[in-house]
Every structure is written in C-alpha cells, then in structure tokens.
Design brief:
about 45% helix, rod-shaped
C-alpha cells in the first residue's frame, strides 16, 4: 500500500524511518534533512502563474469582443425600431392623403421632423391590385452613412384609397 494512502487511512507504515538507519551520523540531528512541510506548503511556480495569466488574457479579450458586438447589435436594433416606426408613420400619412400621396415617391424626414432622423430616408410605391379599389402601398425607410452600409426596412399595406 502506498505510504501516503496508509497515513490517510491511519495505518502504520512498515517502512523503517531514515533516522533508525543512520543513527550516530549527521543526519540524526536534522542538519541536512529537508522538512516535509517545505514541499507541502508550496506556492505557485512561475509557469503556473504565466499559464493562469495567459488564460485570463484570452478570456478578457473574448469578453471585450462580445461587449463590442453587443453594443453594435443594440445600435442596429434601435435604428431598425426607429425605421419601422417611421415606415408606419408614412403608411398612415399615405392613407390619410389618399391619391394625393402619389405626387411624392421619396424623401427624407427633415420637413416632417426637423432636426430629427437626419440619417433616415423614405420611398413609397402605390400600385392597384386585381381587386377594384384596393391598392398596394409599399413604404421603405433606409439608413446608413455610406452606400455599402445602407439598411432598409420595408412595410407593405393593402388598403382602399379614395
């Protein structure tokens, strides 16, 4: 049985102690003996500290990347919500204006909401359907600084117009 396991179980070890083998020598006084507690107390080695710091660095970089992605998705969701509400507003305005809404097919929100929604633009199409008096209204709201980053929210409504 293992010496350590025997001690844990409370059993006596059959191995003679080193003291009994070298009686009368320098080893008996304990001058050259390394105490067992020096190994048991131990600390962290430099390698263990470096590995822990490397794991921590990888985790922190990953968390910062996730935080950045979360902010970008939150901004995108906010703009999409704003665009959806503006598209609903344009659909309602088109229903109120009726056939007079066919004059303007695109624009921005500077005249409707001065100083707000500066990056948002709208377009509108109106087409008759196969049913008499029923029109297809399609309103899209787009936003984005550059042409390659433009996103669009489009809503379609089937309604009678007068």
């Amino acid at each position: 049985m293992d010496l350590l396991a025997g001690r844990l179980l409370g059993l006596q070890s059959q191995v003679p102690s080193p003291k009994s083998q070298v009686q009368g020598s320098k080893f008996e006084s304990g001058a050259f003996r390394i105490p067992h507690s020096a190994f048991a107390a131990g600390g962290f080695t430099l390698l263990e500290v470096l590995v822990a710091m490397a794991v921590l660095a990888v985790a922190l970089v990953s968390l910062l990347g996730l935080y950045n992605r979360s902010l970008l998705l939150t901004i995108r969701a906010q703009r999409l919500s704003t665009a959806t509400l503006l598209a609903e507003e344009m659909l309602t305005r088109t229903q109120i204006e009726g056939m007079g809404a066919m004059r303007a097919t695109a624009g921005d929100f500077a005249d409707l909401h001065p100083g707000q929604y500066s990056g948002f633009r709208w377009y509108r199409t109106m087409r008759p359907t196969a049913l008499e008096g029923l029109w297809e209204l399609r309103v899209g709201v787009s936003w984005g600084e550059r042409e390659d980053e433009t996103e669009t929210c489009e809503l379609t409504l089937f309604t009678p117009l007068s």
